[in-house]
Amino acid sequence: MNEKALRVLEYYKIKDIIKNFTQTSAGKDIIEDLKPYDNIYEVKEHLEETKEALMLLAKKGSPPFEGLYDVREGISRAEKGSSLMPGQLLKIANLLRCARRFKEYVNRREEEEAFRVIEDICEGLVPLKKLEDDILLAIVSEDEISDKASTTLYNIRRSLKDKNASIKDKVNSLIRSNSKFLQDNLYTIRGERYVLPVKAEHKGSVPGLVHDQSSSGATLFIEPMSLVNLNNEIKELMLKEKAEIERILSELSSKVYDNITVVKNNANIVWELDFIFAKAKFASQYNCTCPSVNDNAIIDLIEARHPLIDPKLVVPSSIYLGREFTSLVVTGPNTGGKTVTLKTVGLLQLMALSGIMIPARENSTVSFFKEVFADIGDEQSIEQSLSTFSSHMKNIVNIIHEADDKSLALFDELGAGTDPTEGAALAVSILENLRARGTRIVATTHYSELKGYALKTTNVENASVEFDVETLRPTYRLLIGVPGKSNAFEISKRLGLPEYIISAARENISTDTLKFEELIQSLQEKSIKAENDARISEGLKNEAAKLKEKYEEKLYNFQKTRDNAIINAQREAKRVVKEAKEEADTILKNMRELERLGYSSDARQKLEEERKRLKARLENVEDSMNKANDEDGEALKDVKEGQEVFLPSLNQKVIVLSKPDNKGEVQVQAGIMKISVKLKDLRLSKLTKDEKKEIKKREVSLNLKAVSSSVDLRGMDSEEAIYTTDKYLDDAYRAGLYEVTIVHGKGTGILRQAINEMLRKHPHVKSYRLGAYGEGGTGVTMVELK
């Protein structure tokens, strides 16, 4: 991608904003190197990873980046076999902990949604829990090693503690005995050795080694001879402690070196995840969506917003080209928003090609372009003695040399800065040349000649920025299909110019020109209405398709669950009957054994009655089972070869291979098996019923009434809100909506309480709940309809 387009379209400012969302300087460096990708596969994959990261943020909260630092320097030193500092080792341990936690963060349960791209990235993360624990156990902070790092270190520090306690006792004893020779009754430390502050005139009274003296020379810091050995022992222990710490750090560094490939790989993946989630946080902050990407040079940006304009002030614009037309000529007054429109198209295109989600509505589309050219702004160069026109023309020459059918060209005030007649002719020639190559073009201009060119040329369309004559201000809305109107007479009249002057001016303009202006006015009104109707129609069509797909899937799952439940119930019933029969047989056998032992005729009669009763109950159960099986389909009196029927004993469909023989048996094929069964055991295939249901289901027509999936009650009192909600729920229920959102705001909670009380008794409401994170929180109530 050419550097000039990236600069003039302010692409680098977007990257600077995204850098603020990263955790590490390594993530910032990845963003610094980011440029639009050079193939459509990479564009789609990187957009998908950003979309998945945004969904993870909404569903699982912030990713586990706590305690993560940029440890590239530490890894580089470890790779060379050098011993690392405690702080570097600690940061590497935190990196490993972050990698391990990230794997847990992304891993999903069976019922959770899959995140294909990010899951694939995290597959490369290899937990090193042992190394992580070893470092965190040994190192407390950047300047402190734990006593638990090794047994030797623990013993050294315990001995050091004991020696320090002994020498303190000894020093305090010396202070008491030599207090008259001391400047102060306390000890101090010089060069890690305990000393006493002795007055200079009494230095001979306290025999020992002089280590230092005060700035005035009145005090000498003397180490008494009786402390020399103890100080030496402490010094020796301190040297041992230092050597043991160095050994521990060297050992831990060696462990990092042994796993350096895994550590580097984990680090690179974590930096990449830091970069991906920075893009997702940017998308969340700026209310971005993921566009679809095509390679047919089609752009369709729905309510696109320039991300560098204050969200409270920016006016969304819908911009499209590539289907009915390939070139767009935008006209309109100065400060009307033409240049912003141009920059919005270019910047959002560059963002999408870099895997960054764009501030536009869902279902927006961008195209894969190998190059985006932009001739925007004043490029006058004093050093090179170039005028505004010359500098623009120099840039346009480069575009003419390089543009092709995989390019998007953006021109601001094409042909300006020179004689209007020549400039307009030149602009038309440039546009026509690029259009013939298949280059997609958006150009702004003041020249009326270009309006005529767009009206009479195939694949070229007019557009304008709207101007409100009543307020004398631009609305910044883009109107595609309508050339810009000057509005000079209306504006002059509003500003107070006398009517007779305006009338004289009208007489100086040809009738054709005035008719042309009136035609523009009429076209403008019709175009706005047509565009709105088309957008609403498209939205309703998409919503209806989604609803249809959603309920077809629910119906399929319901039927599948029901069939499985019936099959499982039949199997369970057969198992219970089988066990009951076996138990009954055992009881009867035992009864016969008892009979042999000898009973009276009355006892035998009672046993016989119980036996008959038991037999009758089993027969009733089997009859019920058979009746249930009969309900699986109608009994067949005759079958045809090739007919599909249902065999309850196998609980599957079979194909009839022969006519019934003299025994009433037919040969059927069940899968790869051919078996003979009784005709009376066959049933009409359940497929016939399912087909009827499928046909009936297809005949169900969707209610296409334009009902929104949410209603906004903010600013209403309780009574008005309840009335509005009740009417909305009726409309939503008739429209077949499954779930709707009631926006009542947070406030004092009175409106929310009134709405929830109404929902509790409403006949259309199945359940309701407050919004979750990402849905609006306690400011909305999510309602599931029956």
From TrEMBL:
GO function term, MF aspect, one: endonuclease activity
Gene3D superfamilies named among the record's database cross-references: 3.30.1370.110, P-loop containing nucleotide triphosphate hydrolases
Entry-linked SMART domains: MUTSac, MUTSd, SMR
Keyword annotations: ATP-binding, Coiled coil, DNA-binding, Endonuclease, Hydrolase, Nuclease, Nucleotide-binding, RNA-binding, rRNA-binding
Keyword field contains Coiled coil: yes
Enzyme class, UniProt record, top EC level: hydrolase
Assembly information from the UniProt record: Homodimer. Binds to stalled ribosomes, contacting rRNA.
Protein name: Endonuclease MutS2
